[in-house]
Structure formats: C-alpha cells, structure tokens
Amino acid sequence: MEGELASLGQFIGAGFAAIGSGLAAIGVGNVAGNFLAGALRNPSAAGGQTATLFIGLAFAEALGIFAFLVALLLMFAV
Amino acid sequence: MAEEAHSEGGLVFHPMDQFIVKPLFGDGPVEWYTPTNVTLWLGLAVLCTVALFVLGTRGRAIIPTRVQSVAELAYGFIYKMVEDIAGPEGARYFPKIFTLFVFIIMTNYLALIPMSFSPTSHIAATAVLGFGVFFAVTALGFIKNGTHFLGLFWMSEAPLILRPIIAVIEVISYFVRPVSHSIRLAGNIMAGHTVIKVFAAFAGVAALSPVSVFAIVAIYGLEVLVAFIQAYVFTILTCVYLRDALHPGH
To answer: ∠ CA(B180), CA(B182), CA(B184), 5° rounding?
Structure first.
C-alpha cells in the first residue's frame, strides 16, 4: 500500500514537472517570435543577430530541460 | 527497473532501454576497459570525422568535390562564428571549439541511425565536455586577466547598492553554466530519442499504427534539425563563455 502511494506521488510529481516543459515552450516561442518581429522590420540587421537568437533560445530552453530532467528522475531514478 | 516497467506500463519495450550501456561481446560486467556500445559509436564518430576531414579534403582541389566542400563549409561556418562572438583573439582557440562541434554533430547524427546508440544522450558524456569547457575557460580567464577576471561578477555600471546582490546572482549563474551547458545537450537528445521510441511502441496497436508511423517520420525530421541545432548551440555557448573569459569587463 505504502509503495503504491509512493509511486502515485512519483507519477503525479512527474506530471507536474512536465508542465515546466510546456512553459519553456512559451519562452522559446517568445524569443523566436520577437526575433521574427524585429527581423521583419529591419531585415538587413537580422543576419548578424542569429547567434543572439540561438543563445536566447538555448537559455529559455534550458529551464524546460531541467523540468524534463526532474520528471525523468522521478520516473526512473527515485 | 526495465522488467518492472514492462509489466506496469504495458509497452512492448521500454522507451529508455535504448540508453542502456551494454558490453559489445558477452554479458559480463562493464569495467572501464570493456568495449561497450558507447565505445563502438564513439569510435565510429571518430572514423566519420577522419573520413570527412582527412580523406575528404585530401585532394586539396581548387574546385572542391562534394565531400571537400562539406568540410570547407563546416570549417568556414564555425570559424566565422568564433570570430564574430569571441573576437579575433578567440580565433586562437578555434581548433578546440571546432573539435567540440564536429564531435557532437557526428555523434548526434550517427545516433539517428535506427538501432544505434547515442553517446551524447548520457549526461556522463556531455558533462565531461561541459565541465571541460568550464574549467578551461575559467583558468584562461585568470591567466589572461588575473584578478581583473573577477570584474565579470562586479557590474561597474549598476548602482552601488545593487552591486553585491548582482554579484551573488552572477556567481550563481556562472557556476550553473556547466550544468545547463551539458544537461541541455543530453536532455535534448535523450528526449527526442525517447519520444521516437514512445511513438514506436504505439505501432503495436493496429488502429494506432498509421499515426505512429507518421509521428515517427515527423519527429525524426525534427530530430535531424535538433541534432544540428544542439551541436551549434553547444559551440555558440562555448564561444560566449570564451568571450567572457577574454574580455571580462561588463
């Protein structure tokens, strides 16, 4: 009984952690969308900023990956 | 763990089974000298790198062959990126950065072959790369700039009251860098491969199998993109850290 309760907690926790991945998707979308909005206004400056775009994407995505990692740890490592 | 999940989850195979490190020959314990599937795919990545950059460019033709132009494009692409981000002094460290890029992209792409193994999906592998960059860059910063390197944490433009608080935040973010640097690569690759296997498991249900096939094709396409983007992001962040070490002034 106790073991079942513990795995119930694990699965619920992993499900909650998966929300974090979705929230990171909002962040990544924000970065990419704002980049596109800026790039369409000034296309000549856009080419030089792709590196900045990828850095921004990477930072926004890292936190989602952390949430995903927490979910994986709860599912397989606890 | 795997047997447990087989009985509980009802999947034909476990989506995480693909990441198990097994010996190539027999079923013995994995020692540090045992040739495993990691060894095999790392070795193949090295062989592919040699094939592309040594054998491919051996002709040194003025009008490059297809293989030679792939090698030249990759070289020029990364060289320009290093120069743009880390500055002309950063170009001295280009060989290390290009090695990282080529190694990661080769392992990522070889891992996309069905039934293959992806070394970059293991945090153990990427942590070595990430922490290697972190220690190298920190040592380089102190060697090049001495104690002036600590100016990276002390924002001289910020108001004086805020500076200690910002310094604490900067120090924390500096030490989280190698962790996020390595986990980002491993997490992305592992997540993509797991999703493919999860959809592959749906193929066992007859009604869902067309969905499964289309989903795998679509996600495989995405994974080809992710394999490149993660290698690119890893090298770009290495360049950013290198720039911080060479020019620590904020």
So the answer is: 60
Are B81 and A68 within 8 A, CB to CB? no
Is residue B225 classed exposed, middle or buried when 0-12, 13-18 and 19+ CB atoms within 10 A define those classes? exposed
Structural contact between residues B195 and B211, judged by C-beta atoms closer than 8 angstroms: no
Residue B236 and residue A55: Cβ atoms within 8 Å? yes
Nearest partner of B132 among B191, B54, B185, B190, judged by Cα:
B185
Residue ranges of the domains in chain B? 2-246
Over residues B43-59, the mean pLDDT reads 90
- Closest to B197 (Cα-Cα) out of B19, B23, B21, B39: B19
User: Does the reported pTM lie above 0.90?
Assistant: no
Three-class SS state of B36:
strand
Q: Tell me whether B229 touches chain A (CB under 8 Å).
A: yes
Q: How far is A41 from chain B (nearest CA, A)?
A: 23
pLDDT of residue B101: 95
CA distance B211 to B204: 11
Provide the residue ranges of all domains of chain A, joining segments of one domain with +: 2-77
Superfamily (CATH) of domain A2-77: F1F0 ATP synthase subunit C (1.20.20.10)
Ordered alpha helix ranges (H), chain A: 2-41, 43-46, 50-72
Q: What is the predicted pLDDT for the residue at A72?
A: 79
ipTM of the complex: 0.70
- Write out the two tokens for B152: 């990276």
Q: Which residues of chain A have pLDDT under 50?
A: none
Among all residues of chain B, which has the CA nearest to that of A51? B236
Question: CB-CB: which of B16, B85, B183 is closest to A65?
Answer: B183
B124 touches chain A (CB under 8 A): no
Contact between A66 and B229 using a beta-carbon 8 Å cutoff: no
Joined tokens for residue B78:
């990364």
Which of B122, B123, B233, B235 best probes binding to A when mutated, by most A CB atoms within 10 angstroms? B233
